[in-house]
Write a structure and sequence with these properties.
Blueprint lengths: L8 H5 L7 H29 L4 H25 L3 E6 L9 E5 L6 H7 L4 E5 L10 H7 L2 E2 L3 H13 L3 E4 L17 H9 L2 E10 L17 E7 L6 H4 L4 H20 L15 E4 L1
Parallel strand pairs: 1-7, 2-5, 2-6, 3-4, 3-5
Antiparallel strand pairs: 1-8, 6-7
Helix pairs in contact: 2-3, 2-5, 3-4, 6-7, 7-9
Length: about 280
Amino acid sequence: MAHVFSENDSAARSVVRGDWFYWRFIGTAIGFFAFGLGALLLSVAFPVLRLLPRPRCQQLSRSALQGVLRTYLALVSGLGTISYELHGVARLGRPGQLIIANHPTLIDALFLIAFTPQAVCVAKGALFRSFLIRNVIAATGYISNELTADMIESAATALRAGECLIMFPEATRTRVGEPLLFQRGAANIGVRAATHVTPVYITCHPITLTKAEPWYRIPPRRAHFTLRVGEDFSLAEYRANPSIPLGSRAFNELLQANFERELQRPHGYTSGSSTGNESELAG
């Protein structure tokens, strides 16, 4: 079975340190401090927005969060801690769109939320109890993944209402060197309610901010993130199945196989690189 990362982590760590290693360490510390400070400020400001009618509160909160995260990514790339490139992000944010992404690093969601207008995100249940994050989550109307049945119903309702939804089918960050393991929730939601199901393939080289890796263990050179938006999946075959669980299982198998194949392609991906896709470089 294909592995998520094409480079060996231990080999990557043995590379001679470069790209202003010690400055990047300081920049990483500044970045984490800025993130915590920003989260604290938003957690104070967003409860005020909750005094507004719910639709208006969610609209303003999502717009504000998107702007803050774009600024944050500009900050950390400007500090030289990371660089990134985006391909096809103009196709994100369509009504009823389910965005499916792999999850190699801690900050994948930041990229997707920053470049997807008015996105709803399926988030870890623990974030709804976090002192720094819970007020932000409540104001934006994000959906908890803690109870699967409730998550599926809430996500399907959001899609039918024309919302754009972001999900990580793995439900947690990928472990370096281990194969992808997609849970069926995203496929189930897509079959039930999505107008479009759009993949976003995320890579980071050299890999950093992985599961169980401390923030201060920075890579030997600047990490470069690539996000590419692939072509929409066709849902007709899976919706034709009289059993939603069986259709969802088959669709989930397709999703996982597609991501495994695309993430193994050398020099990026073929999906989502068609003429007309916009590209943005930072760092």
